Amino acid sequence: xxxxxxxxxxxxxxxxxxxxxxxxxxxxxPSRVLRGRRAVTIALASWRWxxxxxxxxxxxxRTLGCAITGLRRAARVSARGNILHGALVEQEIVATGRGxxxxxxxxLKPVHTELAEELKAALERVLDSGWFVxxxxxxxxxxxxxxxxxxxxxxxxxxxTDAIELALRAAGIGPGDEVITVAHTAVATVxxxxxxxxxxxxxxxxxxxxxxxxxxxxxxxxxxxxxxxxVHLYGHPANLDAFIALTERHGxxxxxxxxxxxxxxxxxxxxxxxxxxxxxxxxxxxNLAALGDGGAIITRDAHLAERLRRLRNYGxxxxxxxxxxxxxxxxxxxQAACLRVKLAHLDDHNAARRTIAEDYDHHxxxxxxxxxxxxxxxxYHLYVVRHRDRDLLSRRLRQKGIGTLVHYPVxxxxxxxxxxxxxGPGSLPHTERAAAEVLSLPLYVGLRSADVLNVxxxxxxxxxxxx
Length: 467
Known about the structure:
The chain is of the alpha/beta class. The protein has 18 helices and 16 strands. The protein has three domains: 12-89, no CATH class; 113-343, Aspartate Aminotransferase, domain 2 (3-Layer(aba) Sandwich), CATH 3.40.640.10; 346-466, Aspartate Aminotransferase, domain 1, CATH 3.90.1150.10. Helices cover 38% and strands 12% of the residues. The chain has a seven-stranded mixed β-sheet, sandwiched between helices.
């Protein structure tokens, strides 16, 4: 049997060529659900089969029977074989050992379990070195992160917020300058602009990608505009061709906010490499995640890299000699060592995220699913759907044991903290509508096909109940 368990359509890897006929002997499962090869796929896809439990003492059928008792509700299958209403697995009894309970929105444990030995070795290496801030691990991570992106320089800092602030300061942007970005983003983007002393100018999004709309950005350019910061939101790149053309035409700086898009690509090229600088966050939930806060800026410009290194460390050029005012924004050695481990697995983990997203695309009904627009490789930091009754749907999913989040429920221009920016209701209509309708579903490395199926079924039932 394959290591991942039985996945065959006809059960042949279990030695059961007539699996669907035997399934019909179990009470409570309508025969219309289980006829045919697709029905077997539904049954088998709901669990990860444990090799020993299926083969020891010839007890394969006893295990299968236990699994079937965990189905409280059957499914019906469309004529073309796609799952319309899914098989609802309310109780899981085999292999994984996880019983009924909440499917949380995110779970960081599977990745750390997978990489446990590598992470332990990295931590021991740091402890043995006795060097904990701006040491060899940070330097090596910077080299590896730059190499991954095909650029010459990476400068590690304490957070993604610091990365944007320092990028702006390194470019000489500050008081009196305007920086165009979006209100549909984490507040850190705007916070960083203001910390650099500049004024954030918020524009509307493309409703299909949730990223900055090029036409809206063009309309916001004034004599004071110095830079644009498109956010590659949810893992989907912004329209970089349009923003390169726009910034070049107007002599503006392009800085990419890549906090949610590690490994994403535009036209085959990694995001972060198109603008003067690309800014990353390594917050623990990111696709490339530290065990705490962290961030980095990548650039091809040696002068910018040199200034970034000064600014992150109090403006020092050598110990206790300060050429300019800076801040304390230094990535520690433990975080750098862990990031080195995870960077080696980033592409595989992003591929796993894309596979989960494809599962959702196939099974979801009744909600607007995300689409890839343009020559992009989406890395699905978040899988975000839309529905006009988002809040009701979210509550019903919670009642059914499915965790969700909203990214983001209140746009920055409607937050009390930013009322002085003077954007009235309706000023950014696509942003405000998205904020009222978007819902992020569980998606993380380690999420199983059965979990995706359960979410899809729960959404379908929730919408039926609300109708």
